[in-house]
Amino acid sequence: MSDERRARAGFTLVELLVVIAIIGVLISLLLPAVQAAREAANASACKNNFKQIGLALLNYELTWGALPPSRIQYVTNINGQDKNVLHSWTPAGLPFCEQSQLATQYRWDRDWRAAENRTVVQTTVALYRCPSAPSSRRSNNFTGDAVGDLGAVNEVKQDFFDATGIMPPSNRAAAMTRWVETRFAEITDGTSHTITTAECAGRPQLWIKGQLQDRSPPDGVGWADPNCGFSISGTQADGVLVGGPCVINCTNDSEVYSFHPGGAHTLFADGSVHFLYEQIDLLTFVALVTRAGGEVIDLKSVY
Description:
Layout: H1 3-8, H2 13-64, E1 71-78, E2 81-88, H3 90-93, H4 100-105, H5 118-121, E3 150-156, H6 158-164, E4 195-199, E5 207-208, E6 211-212, E7 230-232, E8 263-268, E9 273-277, H7 282-289
Parallel strand pairs: 3-7
Antiparallel strand pairs: 1-2, 3-4, 4-8, 5-6, 8-9
């Protein structure tokens, strides 16, 4: 074999660079598809979590005759003294979603922040987390709470109506309000038309319109935190000024927020799960949050 033929047996530098460029182009084309497939799987898992929570709430209602309050407070005797203890609805759901062992460890006669409950509130409950949300998060408060990515929706606040000019209904309360249990008979708008819980993902990090902020995080960071529930105020377009028409994916500071593109998952009182889009009509959104507003909704136009 001649020296010329031996020299041509390998790749030239130009050919190698061309191959590398082609591989780079292929990777750039495939990466969005891989990311889209991963997000689709995460969104499906998130939706399934809500379905399981929906079943838990239905079983809770079947057992106790009402939905649990978003925030629970009562007086108990501790060391001979009457003390107020505070809880979230989330520990109440544990026995109904295959978390009986964790539920038996939770002390209802002690405050959720008490030392007796620290092991439980520091335990990650996958059902209360969304796989699309940042994974490496933990509360920075003194208990080191395991985080959660959803909350009960309490009501539509007056500042939303003041900012948007929309006429408030006679009853602004949602299906799971603070302090008081809600019977299905009180959801006069219909259980299939009324939201119980929604995504409020990413806490304790503060997120505004997809951007991580360096300001103080919102409250209600742990899944067992009584402040994980929230009321709807909406924000202005910047996601900062409270009170306005932006009600989904503008901020996770006590508003509906997810890491899914275009909208967020919501759970309804009948146990159904629906993905509400960011562009949802505001009158329709208010009607879905309130339990007894008397609105008429065409669900086919929503989902």
